[in-house]
Every structure is written in C-alpha cells, then in structure tokens.
Amino acid sequence: MRGAGLVIVFWWVATGLIIAMQANPITRLAGLLLSTALAVVGVMEMRAVRDDRSAQGIRRGFLGGAMLWAWVSASFYGGYLTGIHPAGPVAAAPSWAAVPPAIAATLVSDAAALLLILAGGVMDRDATNRTGLWALTLFWGVQQVAKLNVFFGVENPAANFLPPHLAYLHQFFGPPVNSPFLAGSIVVTMALTAWVMRIARRAPSEGDRQAAAIYATILGLAVLELIVLGIPLEQTPWDSFLKARGA
Description:
Elements: H1 2-20, H2 25-48, H3 55-77, H4 99-105, H5 107-123, H6 131-152, H7 180-202, H8 206-229, H9 239-245
Helix pairs in contact: 1-3, 1-8, 1-9, 2-3, 3-5, 3-6, 3-8, 5-6, 6-8, 7-8
C-alpha cells in the first residue's frame, strides 16, 4: 500500500504542479529549473539504491525514475523540448498524412525520454534494483498510448490541459468521438494491470512485491486516464491547478 500510495500522490502532485507552472514565462522557467534539480536528485537516488532490494529501496528507486519523468514532462509542457512545429496546415487527424507531422511535433521530447531510458539502462547494468528505470519506461509507454488515442479520437481529449504555447498540437487531435482503439487500449491495459497485480501477490520477497505493486499502480492509473479520455467530464482532479495557471 505504501508503494501504491506513493505512485498516486506523485502522479497527482507532479501533474498538477507542471500544469500550474505554465502560468507565465517566469513560472515556466522556474518549473524547468526545479524539475532539472529534481532530475539530478533522481539520478543520485537510482544510483544509491541500485543494489537495494528492500521495500524502502524499491520506493526510492521509483522516486528516482519518477523525477526523471517529471523533468521530461516539465520540459515538454514548458515548451523547451517539444518537436518540429508544422510550417503550415496539416491533414486532419486521424489520417496517414497526419502521422509524420504528428510524430515530429513531439519528436524532441520523445527522443529525450528514450535517451534517458537508454542511459538508465546503462547506469543500471548489473543492478538488482531497476525500479526507477522500469517506472520511467512505463510512464513514457502509457503516455504514448494516450497520445495515440487522442490522435484517433476521444470524447474528452482534455485540450484545456495544454498551455497556450502548445496550442498548435490541437490540430493533431482526432474527432471528439471515441474510436475503437480506446476500448482496445483499456482492455489490454487492464489485463496488464491484473497480470502485474497477480505477480505482486505471488512475489517471493517484500521488495519484489513492492516493485510489482508500483508497476501495477502506474498501469492502473493509465487505465483511469484512458477511461477519462472517453467520458466528457466537467471537473478533473487538477481543476485547482488549472485555476492557478489561469486556464
């Protein structure tokens, strides 16, 4: 429960702060600097617990990877690491013609995340605690699933979450109708969540149970996010942060 609670608190607080910090150029820069400092701490944490398979070591490893993901998210939402902006109008999503510019629009951010994952894999080579690396990989993976769903079309793409300097990304949103891909994504992610939860219950050690519980919670939150994409909601858990941003 401690591992699951840690993931939920981080997910809510980090997402909310990243949203709120987009209020103006000064707060955006402050958010980038803060997330960069936390990313450095995250790397130090991952290195410090690379061979610690205790429950506490697993949680510290998760926080290390989560801080790296927070840096990726803050640099993207702040507009510092995004991608190649389309020079003119693009084909409406979803269409094959819209795929290349859609990929290019977030290419730099995705490349940065993949480089961090690769660097983490090198750093954690022969390590017994790779929770931070797997958490970082899962956060990036579930984000790609969410992006694909928005591209194909969902009823609630949460366009208001994007700050004004990322408004150009709206042209890559599909029609406001749930596509069949959404249902498939939810079913597959739910199955993965159930499978990892089963692993958590049967894990032979406390550290293994903690790690599996953390992964299952990340996947479970991804299921929740996908469900929310398909339901038109007037309120979200981050409304107070949106208000602080001035949205």
